[in-house]
Amino acid sequence: MRGMDRLAPLLTTLEADGRLRVWSLVITVFGDSVQPRGGRVSTARLNRLLGRIGVEPGALRTALSRLGRDGWVDSERDGRLSHYRLTPEGRAKFTDATSRIYAPPRGPVAGWALSLEDSPDPTALHVGGMALRPADAPAPPARLRLVGQLQTLVPDVAQDILTDAHRAALQALRADLNALVAPPHDPLDAAAARTLLIHRWRRIVLRHPELTAPLLPPGWAIAPRAAVARAWHDLTPLAEAWWDETGPGLPAMPPAGPALMERFGGKGLD
């Protein structure tokens, strides 16, 4: 029953997002779990993992077919099993996104930049029509750029300058992190939980600006990236144990290299 399911809170927030884009969830699985293990995965293993999340086999087949048509994945047969891997074009698309998703939490911000730019930049917060970001962060050309310290900071100002979509995404992330305070004990559950966590985080990172102290909304004692990093590393040993499992339809996969545990800067780094 859902009420006894350790994944229930995560599945509830996933359902609250609306119609699930299964193809996007498959991309998350490739980036988070398949690429570190040689980049090739059987359909049976994908079905086992995504079935735990509630994805039907037919929906997965449709998603893989779409990803094939769009040039993301190639398929191959190995006996009775089908396997998928990213195409060279698919891997190329991963490079920038992966570095952004798994970057280490940043340290204290030494200075801030306020810029007047020709077009909105999704990587920056916006205040009074101007872009606000750490002074050392990459930025597009600006018509006007001021660099200095934050002299005045009204309490909860970050909550006021977030867009509605960003605010809702952070609330859903907070719900997921709260649910993972007591992580799953089953390897498959841990693998599914890590997939759901990084799927939500991936969408936040690629759609919204990064938040760090002192511009954290209420309820965030540490920056979202640091909180996600901590939860991801807590889930990873058991999640990787599931990816190590073999059985009918689950052929052995290469072990993940040491770079996996260096994601987010390594365990314990906030």
Kindly describe this structure.
The structure is a single chain. The chain has 270 residues and is α+β, with helices and mostly antiparallel strands. It has 2 domains: 2-106 and 180-202 and 224-265, Winged helix-like DNA-binding domain superfamily/Winged helix DNA-binding domain (Arc Repressor Mutant, subunit A); 112-148, no CATH class. 46% of the residues lie in helices and 12% in strands. The protein contains 9 helices and 7 strands, in the order ααβααββαββββαααα. The protein has helices spanning 8-16, 22-34, 43-53, 57-69, 88-101, 157-161, 164-179, 187-207, 224-244, and strands at residues 40-42, 73-78, 81-86, 112-116, 125-127, 130-134, 144-148. The protein has a 4-stranded antiparallel sheet, with no helix packed on it. The chain has a 3-stranded antiparallel sheet with strand order 1-3-2. Strand 5 (125-127) and strand 6 (130-134) form a beta hairpin. The model has no long low-confidence stretch (mean pLDDT 91).
Quick structural gist:
By secondary structure, this protein is of the alpha+beta class. Helices cover 46% and strands 12% of the residues. The protein has a 4-stranded antiparallel sheet, with no helix packed on it. Strands 1-3-2 form a 3-stranded antiparallel sheet.
